[in-house]
Protein: ABC transporter ATP-binding protein
Amino acid sequence: MIAKDQVDPRFVWEAARRARFDGFIREQEQGMDTVIGERGMKLSGEKN
Structure:
């Protein structure tokens, strides 16, 4: 979750790209709106 109410999506995607996480986000059915859950509990074992 991002603390700012209004953040430029380009900034978020750039941060995800730099963290090499953008591919994972794009694979999710709801993309950036995917709810992962506390401590990643909703991820499969191989992604956790």
